[in-house]
Design a protein that fits this description.
CATH architecture of the largest domain: 2-Layer Sandwich
Number of strands: 4
Largest sheet: 4 strands, antiparallel
Oligomer: single chain
Number of domains: 2
Pfam families: bHLH-TF_ACT-like_plant
InterPro entries: bHLH-TF_ACT-like_plant, TF_AMS/ICE1/BHLH6-like
Distance between the termini: 90 Å
CATH class of the largest domain: Alpha Beta
CATH topology of the largest domain: Alpha-Beta Plaits
Keywords: DNA-binding, Nucleus
Main location: nucleus
Subcellular location: Nucleus
Length: 159
């Protein structure tokens, strides 16, 4: 059996641990326990506050996602010629096989795609680098018009 002395010693060690853990200056058992309870209550309130903030942020995110679904993204096609390469940046609303149509437009104009980055999370965006096949002379306006036609054909959008 455990003696009263051992029980008392273990209890004092626990109280000492709690007082050092929660920076309690008191040596009275009641004060230490009250400080610990007060600290736990404060932590609970902080946790509830964080939970409310999280719920508010999630509601804002959901509203933002809903708004993004209903917003029409204006189509933009920007073509630059850097040396022998064409740098093409396209953004428009997503839907259909826009990537396929744009790549076919590159082929019609006589460009080979060297590198392309595509994103279609909330809208369609593409950045591509292309070079002319067989040293053809291709105009920026021709490339821009071909891509615009491909987007129009695919999405049914109007300029």
């Amino acid at each position: 059996m455990v003696t009263k002395l051992q029980t008392r010693t273990a209890s004092r060690r626990k109280l000492q641990f709690l007082s050092t853990l929660y920076n309690s200056k008191s040596v009275k058992r009641r004060s230490i326990v009250l400080n610990v309870l007060l600290h736990c209550h404060k932590l609970k309130l902080k946790l509830e506050k964080i939970h409310r903030e999280y719920q508010n942020l999630m509601a804002i995110r959901n509203q933002y996602s809903t708004l993004l679904k209903h917003v029409q993204i204006p189509k933009q096609v920007k073509v630059e010629k850097v040396g022998e390469e064409f740098v093409v940046k396209v953004s428009c609303s997503k839907g259909g096989d826009k990537l396929v149509s744009i790549l076919e437009a590159f082929e019609e104009v006589g460009l080979n795609v060297v590198e392309a980055k595509v994103c279609c999370t909330h809208f369609f965006a593409m950045e591509a680098t292309a070079v002319a096949q067989h040293q053809q002379t291709t105009d920026i306006k021709d490339v821009t018009q071909a891509i615009l036609n491909a987007i129009e054909k695919q999405g049914g959008e109007h300029i």
